[in-house]
Design a protein that fits this description.
Largest sheet: 7 strands, mixed
Number of domains: 2
CATH superfamily of the largest domain: ATPase, nucleotide binding domain
Low-confidence stretches: 1-12
Oligomer: single chain
Radius of gyration: 17 Å
CATH topology of the largest domain: Nucleotidyltransferase, domain 5
Structural class: alpha+beta
Order of helices and strands: EEEEEEEEEHEEEEHEHE
Number of helices: 3
Length: 195
């Protein structure tokens, strides 16, 4: 569905085929629009990692419609029946003051200002709850990390972040905190036109 001229997709990965720098595998989490993906450096070429179903891109949806948080396609499906339990359009929100965020009438979640920062207010099966921007982004980082470990069979502590827009310092700080919540360190940020 989506491709990039400098990246190929592959499902056959082994630790030996991944390119390492100073003994560290090179992993990049890619964010664009309302989607995320994983790139790994394999034999000197960045490749988009496919999940077990052959998908490269994962929807940036976060759901609290069940006892455990769901992200990705499952959360996107939850939106149909439980819109007040699902957060999306995260990249349009994080790192911005509430007065600069354009509220979309499709959102079932709400934004609440607390200590000058926008928080996500969603319904859960246990009642309403406030989530920080870092907590929501952290759930996506956790899913991307687990997917990378599962498919590429590699453990890692450092990642690169690639977006299709320039992140401001506030947004970078939120990405860094979300990474830290998953025991990851962001070594660099890149702007990349990924389609």
């Amino acid at each position: 569905m989506f491709s990039h001229p400098f990246a190929s997709s592959s499902t056959s990965f082994s630790q030996k085929s991944l390119t390492s720098i100073n003994g560290r595998p090179q992993i990049k989490f890619v964010f664009r629009d309302n989607l995320c993906a994983i790139k790994v450096l394999k034999k000197g070429i960045w490749e988009l990692l496919q999940d077990h179903f052959g998908n490269v891109w994962t929807p940036l949806y976060h759901s609290t419609a069940e006892a455990t948080v769901a992200t990705g396609k499952k959360a996107e499906v939850h939106y149909e029946k439980f819109p007040k339990h699902v957060v999306f359009d995260v990249l349009k929100i994080i790192g911005k003051p509430l007065n600069e965020i354009k509220i979309d009438p499709k959102w079932g979640f709400k934004l609440v200002e607390k200590n000058g920062v926008a928080h996500f207010y969603t319904e859960t099966i246990f009642g309403a709850k406030l989530y920080t921007q870092e907590m929501i982004l952290s759930a996506f980082f956790k899913a991307l990390k687990l997917q990378t470990v599962s498919i590429a069979n590699v453990k890692f502590e450092e990642i690169r972040i690639s977006t299709d827009f320039e992140l401001n310092e506030s947004q970078k700080a939120i990405f860094e905190k979300a990474a830290e919540m998953n025991f990851l360190k962001i070594v660099s940020f890149h702007i990349e036109n990924v389609e």
